[in-house]
Amino acid sequence: MIIGYSSMALLIVIVVLITLSQIANIMVMGNDILENKQPSRMYVDAMKSGVRHSNVTLQNYLLSGNDALKKEIDEIWEKEVQSANDSIDSLKIYWNSPENIILFEKLSRLGNRIKAKQKEVLNNAQFGGGNISLSLYNYMGSEGDTIYDKNDLQSWIDEELNNQSSSNNPNGNLYAENLKPLSDEFDEKAQLLYSNLEEESMAIGEKIFSARDRFVIVESSIVIFSIILCFLFYRLARNQFKGSIDALQSEVKILSEGNIPETKANTNDEFDIILEEIHTLSGNLSNVKNFALEVGKGSFDSDISVFNNQGDIGNSLAEMRDSLKNVSEEARIRNWTNKGSAEFGDILRKFNNNIGELSDHVITFMVSYLKANQGSIFIVDEDENGEEDLQLTATYAYDRKKFLEKTIQPGQGLVGQVYLEKQSIYMKELPENYITITSGLGKATPKSIFIVPLIANDTVYGVIEIGTFTEFTDNERKFIEDVGENIASSVQSVKINERTNRLLEDSQQMTEEMRAQEEEMRQNMEELQATQEEMERSQKENTERLNAMEKSGLAYIEFTPSGDILTADETFISLFGYNTVDELKGKHHRIFLSDDYANSKEYQSFWDNLKAGQIQSGVFERYGKNGRKINIKGSYTVLRNQNGEITKIIKFAFDVSEVYERLEVLVQEKETLLKQLSEIEVKIEGVEPGQLNELKIYQKQLKKSLVEKLQQNEAELKNALKKQKGDLGIS
């Protein structure tokens, strides 16, 4: 194994050295292309383009005479030609070909000659007219909108400029005679230098590919040799280890199949140490087997020693035995608790409509399931004065003398104390004559008693008391307390349902009463219409208003306990002159009141009584959005949540303002008629005696009859209004 690993390490070192050498060689050649040859070609082409650019600009000047083009020519030589020339000058020291260096020097000198010749042409230029026109549509080297050869395009432009300028411009022959030969020679030498640099780059690229191929061949040979060498060493080591490994495999295979070897194997080499430990492990596993059989039978107190009860496995198995013993006990308790909770849940769901039935089945189940001997359950209720007390609703096996009184006040006895403190009481030493358990065999005092408050949402809804001849375990007491929360929730639900039913009945009764009152009002108005024929027009309007009020129904609004408006129906919104409920939401009830009454103690007392849960009903004077006074008959009622807390205040009402307004109108009309009669009487009295005796007699009779009729109508109207006000609760 040492020779094999050493040979592999040596081969790896050789491979790394060869790889690094080849990579370094390739990097040098690649660096020459990227940092020398390629930039040199680029700058030669830039130098060539710069000279062409200056020639084109010169020709433009010769044609147009624009002096700004002179400065542009100088900038081209400085920024394009000279910049490219300087860059090549810094790179030529790395060129390997003297021919290229000489060619560059010639090219540089030729460029200086072209620059000097351009200045000479600029000085000799004359301007007298001429017209030159160029169009790319005449260029034959393009395909559609694409031009592929820029050199060919530049040659075409030069030729066109020369041809047109020589015949159309005084300066036409200056460029052709002085610069055209030099420019052509410059282009030829620049193209030759560019081609030489390109050929050198291609030659270096071929060397790089050749080096890569050699590298692949050498590396492949070394890898193949390494594979063969590894295979030879593997065969040698395999034959040497096979015998010992077979012996170990046989022992381990027996163990892996779940069996214990009966005999001890030997290899006569270093592996004997391992086989000895396997044999020791087999003995310990045999003890584990016997230990598992005992634990599987539920015998958690076995004295079987595993690994001498030492080490991780020995200690773990001992701890496992203890844990299984605890788990078994916990599982029994958990199953007992889950079963009891499930059965108890069925009772709560089945008898959730009546407190009495629920209490009877709950206490019977609790005593039976806990194997206790007696029990009782108390539910919180209100007495005649509205104060809370504890009412006995069910018992199991209690002596009648214990509960002659079925009501317990808060703080009275142990049950009343548990209600106040909201804490369970567990007693194992009971006071003398506290309770006795009665059976057909006689009487006996229980050994322990457990009293638990029934709490839900931090509110006590009752107390349960259970007694037994034995002692309650911790799990039994916890079970009673947990179940107590479920009992409290069920009691709370039943009470809420009962309260809701009562409110519904009250609401229905109040609706019926209001309907009866509306019917009486309608009949009264019909009677008034029959007796007041002379007031037909006014009576007709009053009847229409009463009919509209009858059809409108009740108005409804909701407030928070502090008096803020939550919502209102369309009848209420319309009655008080508002458009939408959004105009009312969030505002206080005092917006319907006069300022004096809103700031009075009487109004504060009104809301204090509502917050205390007292219903407020009667006829109330209120004001609409536009300040109109409105008399309404209604009732304020509170709504409570499951904890008994007031969450909303609701109001049902209807408008009775027209009744009061009509009474005032009738009185005013009566006074007007009486006044008219008095005026007639005065006029008649002014006539001379003897002329209108018969008329006076008739007038007196008419007056008497009219007065009697008005008095009769007034009395009937007052009696009807008095009866209506009495029905509405108006004093």
From TrEMBL:
Keywords: Coiled coil, Membrane, Transmembrane, Transmembrane helix. Pfam families: GAF_2 (PF13185), PAS_3 (PF08447). The chain crosses the membrane at residues 6-28, 215-234. InterPro entries: GAF, GAF-like_dom_sf, PAS, PAS-like_dom_sf, PAS_fold_3. Residues 497-548, 660-727 form a coiled coil. Residues 354-501 form the GAF domain. It comes from the Bacteria. SMART domains: GAF. SUPFAM superfamilies: GAF domain-like, PYP-like sensor domain (PAS domain). This is PAS domain S-box-containing protein.
